[in-house]
Design a protein that fits this description.
By secondary structure, this protein is of the alpha/beta class. 33% of the residues lie in helices and 18% in strands. The protein has a single domain, classed as Alpha/Beta hydrolase fold, catalytic domain (Rossmann fold). It has a seven-stranded mixed beta sheet with strand order 1-3-2-6-7-8-9, with helices on both faces. A two-stranded antiparallel sheet has the order 4-5. It starts with 7 loop residues before the first strand and ends with a helix.
């Protein structure tokens, strides 16, 4: 059975965690790619613990993948998240138990392929989670059945050359139709990445829902 691990950051206030923020990295990266963002989130959430699991798939040059990409089309995305989701769900269960927290104190922050994973698992937990942030991603599974809504922020650069910004617009429409509260923001001229404006919005979103 595949078990995930990755870098962790303890609460900035030195006490027991009162929330858990999980960063989900993109294709070809690993947990170390996003864990540094904890510095910014900790300013608003000093009691939060942070973890950035390495995806289960091993690639060349040390990169990781949540699922393989060959055709890079919607059917591949949907199959991929379905296979990887149970692995990530087990990891989330274990991390919450480790800190003695419930789903209502959990937030997921994804980038690119990590956003696909966040949007797959967030609304299908046993109980509703606190918040979701997705950067430069897409909704791989558009099936709206039995979703547990969580406040969601989606951010995408208009110049994204990897996953077009239209994918966030499509995701937002599908999630709203499934009664998920969604706000989305397009960053003019930004490519496939995270800028300061998006990061600020994400920190505010988590502070509103976890603070």
């Amino acid at each position: 059975m595949t078990e995930l691990s990755g870098p962790r950051v303890a609460p900035a206030n030195g006490g027991p965690a009162d929330a858990l923020v999980v960063f989900l990295h993109g294709y070809g990266a690993d947990g170390s790619d996003l864990i540094g963002l904890s510095e910014f989130f900790a300013r608003a959430l000093p009691g939060a613990a942070f973890v950035a699991p390495d995806a289960p798939g091993q690639m060349g040059m040390g990169g990781r993948e949540w699922f393989p990409l060959t055709m890079r089309d919607p059917s591949e995305y949907r199959r991929g998240v379905a296979v990887a989701a149970p692995i990530l769900q087990r990891f989330l269960d274990a991390e919450l138990e480790r800190h003695g927290l419930g789903n209502d104190r959990l937030a997921l922050v994804g980038f690119s392929q990590g956003t696909m994973m966040a949007l797959e698992v967030a609304y299908r937990r046993a109980e509703r989670i606190a918040a979701v942030v997705g950067f430069s991603g897409a909704l791989a599974n558009t099936d709206p059945d039995a979703l547990k809504p969580a406040p969601t922020l989606l951010v995408h650069g208009t110049a994204d050359e990897v996953l077009p910004a239209s994918m966030t617009e499509i995701a937002a429409r599908a999630l709203v139709a499934a009664d998920v509260p969604v706000a989305f923001h397009m960053v003019p001229g930004l490519g496939h990445g995270i800028d300061q404006s998006g990061l600020t919005m994400a920190v505010n979103h988590l502070h509103q829902n976890l603070g």
